[in-house]
Design a protein that fits this description.
Elements: E1 34-38, H1 43-52, E2 58-62, H2 72-85, E3 92-96, H3 105-116, E4 122-125, H4 131-148, E5 155-160, H5 163-167, H6 169-173, E6 179-184, H7 186-193, E7 208-210, E8 229-231, H8 236-249, E9 252-254, H9 264-277, E10 282-284, H10 290-296, H11 301-313, E11 320-323, E12 326-329, H12 330-347, H13 351-359
Parallel strand pairs: 1-2, 1-10, 2-3, 3-4, 4-5, 5-6, 6-9
Antiparallel strand pairs: 7-8, 11-12
The protein binds acetyl coenzyme *A, pyruvic acid (PYR) and magnesium ion (MG).
The site of magnesium ion has 6 residues, from α7.
GO molecular function, one term: lyase activity
Keywords: Lyase, Magnesium, Metal-binding
Region (Disordered): 202-222
Length: 365
C-alpha cells in the first residue's frame, strides 16, 4: 500500500508512512492523575524512577526546559537506558522532547522511537503553536515507527504555552488521530502573553475582586480594609478553553506544573479547580506533589456513593426523581455517570482506591 497525504476526511486515519501502525480511531482513557517529571540526566533522580513504578500513573522523562543545555544528550541517553531496563507494568512512559525550533528535537525523536519506541506511550511536544507543528511530528513519528517496526502508534500530547497556541487550541486538538491531550504551560504562556506574574502556575494575590464599598450611612464607610477581597484564578480562562477543545475532539486536558513545591495546600486547590472543570490529571515535579495529584484527581468515595445512588434511583435513565430534596433527571444522571465511570477506571488500576469505593457500595467488576 502506498502512503498518501491526509488531504480529505477519509484520509485522516491512514498511516502517514508505509509500514507505520494504523492510527487509533479513539484515544482510550488511561488513568493519568500524576504525570511525574524526572530529569534522566540527574543520576539521583533517575535512580528513583524504577521504585516509582506503580506509585504514579505516568513517568515522564523530561528532555526540555529544566534540563541544562550541556545535559541534553545525557538526558536523552539516560531515558533510553531507563526505558530499556525498567519494567513499567501498568505505569505509562512518556517523554517531553525539546521544542520543535531547537537543535535537539530531531535526535530526541529519532533516538527514542528507534530505541524505546515499543515502551513509549506518549510524546509531549512543547510550545505547540498550531496544527502545522502536530503535522510535522505526526509524519516524522510515522516514518520512525515504520523504520522501527512498531505495531502501535505513539500518541502526541501538546503543551499549550503560547498565545498563538491558545488561539489555535481547537485545530491543535484535531490535527491528528495521535492527539492524546493538552497540558497547560503556565510559565511560558505567562511570558509569551507578557502577563506580570513570575510564578509557575497557581494564583496571584494581586488578581482579585473586592467587595462593594459599605453604604454611605454605614459608620465604617470609606474603610477599605473592611472590604473583603477574593483572589481569582489567573488560569481559569485558559483551562476552560482547553477543556472544551479536548472534549470536542475526544482527548484529555491536564493542569500542568505547580512550581511552589513547598505549598502543597495551594497546589491541591489549583489541581482541584482543574479537576472540577474537567481535567484528568496534573504534573508532579517533586515526590511531595504525587499524593496531592492522586488524591485530587480521584473522585472521593462520598461523591462516588452519591453518584451511584442517583444512577440507581434513575432506573431506565429517563424522567425526574427527588433524592435528598434535590431534583435528578436524564442530565444529572449523565453527570453522575462521569463520576461512576471514572471511579471504575481508577479502581481497576488502584487497589487502595478500589477498597475505598468498595467500602461504600462497590465497583462494577
Ligand atoms: C515550567 C516547566 O517546564 S515545569 C517542568 C520542568 N521542571 C521539572 O521537571 C522539575 C523536576 N523537579 C526537579 O528538578 C526537582 O524536584 C527540584 C529542582 C524542583 C527540587 O529538587 P531538590 O532540591 O533536589 O529537592 P529535594 O531536596 O526536596 O528532593 C528530595 C529528594 O527527592 C528527589 N527528587 C526531587 N525531585 C524528584 C523528582 N521529580 N522525581 C524523583 N525524585 C525527585 C531528590 O533527588 C531528593 O532525593 P534524596 O532524598 O535521595 O536526596
Ligand atoms: C509547563 C511549562 O512548560 C511551562 O509552564 O512553561
Ligand atoms: Mg514551558
Amino acid at each position: 500500500m502506498a502512503a498518501q497525504s491526509a488531504t480529505s476526511a477519509k484520509d485522516f486515519f491512514r498511516p502517514l508512512a508505509v509500514g507505520a501502525p494504523q492510527p487509533l480511531r479513539e484515544i482510550p482513557f488511561r488513568p493519568s492523575r500524576a504525570i511525574h517529571f524526572f530529569d534522566p540526566s540527574n543520576a539521583k533522580m533517575a535512580a528513583k524512577v524504577p521504585g516509582m513504578v506503580g506509585t504514579v500513573d505516568v513517568l515522564l522523562g523530561n528532555l526540555e526546559d529544566a534540563v541544562k543545555a550541556d545535559n541534553k544528550e545525557a538526558a536523552r541517553e539516560g531515558l533510553v537506558e531507563i526505558g530499556r531496563s525498567t519494567d513499567f507494568g501498568p505505569t505509562q512512559l512518556w517523554t517531553r522532547v525539546n521544542a520543535l525550533d531547537s537543535p535537539w528535537v530531531l535526535d530526541d525523536l529519532t533516538r527514542l522511537v528507534g530505541e524505546i519506541g515499543d515502551k513509549l506511550d506518549v510524546v509531549m511536544v512543547p510550545k505547540v503553536q498550531g496544527a502545522e507543528d502536530i503535522h510535522y511530528v505526526d509524519r516524522l513519528l510515522a516514518q520512525l515507527e515504520a523504520k522501527a517496526g512498531l505495531d502501535r502508534p505513539i500518541l502526541v500530547h501538546a503543551i499549550l504555552e503560547t498565545a498563538r497556541g491558545v488561539a489555535n487550541v481547537e485545530e491543535i486538538c484535531g490535527a491528528s488521530p495521535r492527539m492524546q491531550g493538552l497540558s497547560l504551560g503556565p510559565a511560558d504562556l505567562a511570558a509569551d502573553r507578557r502577563m506580570k506574574t513570575t510564578r509557575v502556575g497557581g494564583g496571584h494575590p494581586g488578581y482579585l475582586v473586592r467587595e462593594d464599598p459599605p453604604s454611605p450611612t454605614d459608620p465604617a464607610a470609606g474603610v477599605d480594609a473592611r472590604r473583603a477581597t477574593y483572589q481569582q484564578d489567573l488560569w481559569h480562562y485558559t483551562i476552560a478553553r482547553m477543556v472544551d477543545a479536548c472534549a470536542m475532539h475526544g482527548i484529555y486536558p491536564y493542569y500542568g506544573p505547580f512550581g511552589d513545591i513547598a505549598d502543597v495546600t495551594a497546589c491541591e486547590d489549583q489541581f482541584r479547580n482543574a479537576f472540577l472543570l474537567g481535567c484528568v490529571g496534573a504534573w508532579t515535579l517533586h515526590p511531595k506533589q504525587v499524593d496531592v495529584a492522586r488524591r485530587v484527581f480521584s473522585p472521593s468515595a462520598d461523591d462516588v456513593a452519591h453518584a451511584r445512588r442517583v444512577v440507581a434511583a434513575m432506573g431506565d435513565g429517563t424522567g425526574a426523581v427527588m433524592l435528598d430534596g434535590k431534583m435528578e433527571d436524564d442530565a444529572s444522571l449523565k453527570q453522575c455517570l462521569v463520576m461512576v465511570e471514572l471511579a471504575e477506571q481508577l479502581a481497576a488500576i488502584d487497589p487502595e482506591l478500589k477498597a475505598q469505593y468498595d467500602a461504600i457500595g462497590g465497583t462494577d467488576d
